[in-house]
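Handout, page 2. Input:
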Amino acid sequence: MNYIVLDLEWNQAANKKNRYAKILPFEIIEIGAVKLNDGFQIIDTFQEVIRPVVYPKIHHISREVTGFTSADLQQGGHFPEVLKRFLTWCSSSEYRFCTWGPLDLTELQRNMNYYKIPLFPSPLFFYDIQEVFSIINGESANRRSLEYAVEFYEIEKKKDFHRALSDAYYTALIMAAMGAEKILPNDTVDTYQQPAGPDDEIYMRYDTHSRYISRTFPSRHEVMENSEVLSTRCCICDRRLRKKLRWFSDNSKNYYCLAFCKNHGYQSGKIHIKKNDKERYYAIKELTMTDSEGAAALYEKRVDYTKKHRTKRRQKASAAK
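Output:
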């Protein structure tokens, strides 16, 4: 098994009124990757610049971050051709993608879809090294920057950040510093392609948490009416749990609950509702081991939500008089 450590740089529309902004919010302008063997040793690299056609003028943010100019990008290759060379380079043997953060494979597939290039087989499992870094350092709610992790492991900064190959290179060195025993049990799944039906829904269990990806629904309301979405099972023993706090929301996208397993204690639940490119909705649900302090924090969040909700209702009632 090889590991393809992938990083992308992308351009974007000058403003949200651009007719392509919803279809292709980010157009890839550079692919960089490092190939690792099963011992996490670097065995090859890949880097190519891509000539943008949807947003030919580079956005000022992309220019500031990457250092690219519009003239630089005009020397790049056409996306379908570059992608073909990249995937050929990847497929010399069985491989799995690794990225710093959850976005690269989603945006890669969105760009593939725009050019009507067949997508990767689904589900697409990969290693989000940023997430793994957070998990093994006990701060799963925090997403640290690549540069932070480089400094954490005292890796020498030989290359500039925010270029695709450089960032892939640093991610590869971080993986070597972490070690396979910490990374390999913590794979995840890209959600650009969602499960087609109930039999395809995804269940993943880890040492201290579990993750579930639902099929899609026509509305948020229907997502939150589905019994499987609302169910709570112990992330360790899979026992159905009694909820101490039923699902509640502090905004339109996230829902929280508190459950209890008599063998493994408190577990906090979170449902994040997302909308796909076809205007359908799906849920990513996680249950995570917590302690009495974490349980108390959820109770407090619930009380705060109730207070805010009551205040809004009073304000609406007063305004209607």
